[in-house]
Amino acid sequence: MFRPMRRAKQQLPPAEAEAILAGGTSGVLAVLGDDGYPYAVPLSYVYADGKIYFHCAKSGHKLDAVRREAKASFCVVAQDQVVPAEYTTYFRSVIAFGRVRVLTEPREVRAAIEKLARRYAPEDTAARRAELIEKELPLLCMLEFSVEHLTGKEAKELMLRRGE
Ligand SMILES: Cc1cc2nc3c(=O)[nH]c(=O)nc-3n(C[C@H](O)[C@H](O)[C@H](O)COP(=O)(O)OP(=O)(O)OC[C@H]3O[C@@H](n4cnc5c(N)ncnc54)[C@H](O)[C@@H]3O)c2cc1C
Known about the structure:
There is one protein chain. The protein contains five helices and seven strands; from the N terminus they run H-E-E-E-E-H-E-E-H-H-E-H. With 164 residues, it is an alpha+beta fold. A seven-stranded antiparallel beta sheet has the order 2-1-5-6-7-4-3.
């Protein structure tokens, strides 16, 4: 049911798309918001083994939206190099479609927050990480986005460079 890319030559190999997802630090989560309006909200994330993890407050627009409808998409822009002389941008981006689940099982919640903490502060000590997680855990909700379809795309100019 997922659409093929019209400009298929610009499609990145799957491993490169996954590398962009793994290397990014923020993206835009699009969910079904209120009254049929899509809600696209920027979020930090961590990617691991086909899942994207987010943390958020225990209430709010996005949480209400994913509780109502699990289907969502997530976009990460890896490169947006504007080239004024060519009236274009040399871009690379990925889009994932999938379903979002609010984690409830304490072990899952802790594992997810641990992944985020390691991604954002890899140099921190285990003790400080554990201390911060302990403090923040009661205030947080963890979301798990299971990727069902992932594509990456790059600008035509970047694609042509590959052949050089
Ligand atoms: C780079 C980046 C990384 C972020 N990382 C995280 C993260 O990891 N976890 C997290 O919880 N939040 C993060 N945020 C903040 C996030 O975008 C939301 O503001 C926040 O999650 C609250 O969302 P909500 O739907 O619960 O807000 P609500 O307050 O319930 O949203 C109500 C309304 O406020 C407006 N609104 C909400 N957020 C924004 C926004 N960012 N910009 C403009 N209008 C807004 C919208 O109109 C929305 O309908 C990040 C923001 C940026 C830019």
